[in-house]
Amino acid sequence: MKSDLPIGIFDSGIGGLTVAREIIDLMPNEKVIYFGDTLHLPYGEKSKEKVINYCSNICDFLLNKKCKVIVAACNTASSIAIKNIKQKVGKECIIFNVIDPVIEHLKSLKIKKIGIIGTNATINSHVYEKKITEIKSEISVFSLATPLLAPMIESGFHDASIKKKIIATYLNHENLKNIETLILGCTHYPLIELEINEFYKNKIPVLSSLNSIGLYIRKKLEKNNLLNKTQNVKSHEFFVSDCTTSFQKSAKSFFNNDINLKEIHIFNEK
Q1: Of 15, 123, 181, 197, which one has the greatest count of Cβ atoms within 10 A?
Q2: What structural domains and CATH numbers belong to the chain?
Q3: Given this model, what pLDDT does residue 229 score?
């Protein structure tokens, strides 16, 4: 496998753009190919079988683009489909999810009570609890499904008072009382991290995959001699299954209008 091959990243929508931005900033020599499955968002409300099928189609597309790495920049996909993804394409490229970097980061922290918010699918999978207790059995994990947040963010909802009320309603939930740290278990949620920090008056540390995923991937690429060290990086490519106005606006704001966005149809529905 050549080091100058691209990194493939996918999510159900704009959330994964936060991961793409982090990877591009940290590894400027890497070419990124992004796929946002806006046609099927949010994944957190879909059945496991459908999510696995969507991920399978996307991975086929990214492999056809000669990606050396595929990053499932979606907590739902990382929770319920990553095993199937690895079985399908793990021999052809390196697979990353957005959960393991957070778990690795937690190893260095001294905390006893962790709160987690995410989609229904992510929370119901209990993947965070399982992985956290494997590394630190003394930690108590308190989870809460927050299904309204990703659609709110994806739609570009701008009414500040209503947005803050929705966030406060979730964070005031009994499940999250007395936590010491909050994990954002969805790649959309860093887009409202400011409002979350305001709710906690910056007294509760907030963690997400963005705290560690770039370094995590770079370290793995270096270990496998796959980090691209050439300077002539070709333009990044961005694809969506449904070219919505909100995605176009978000993508252009993330990348200062320097983005080539294409709609493409790749799915074999089951």
Answers
A1: 15
A2: 7-97+212-263 (3.40.50.1860), 100-209 (3.40.50.1860)
A3: 87
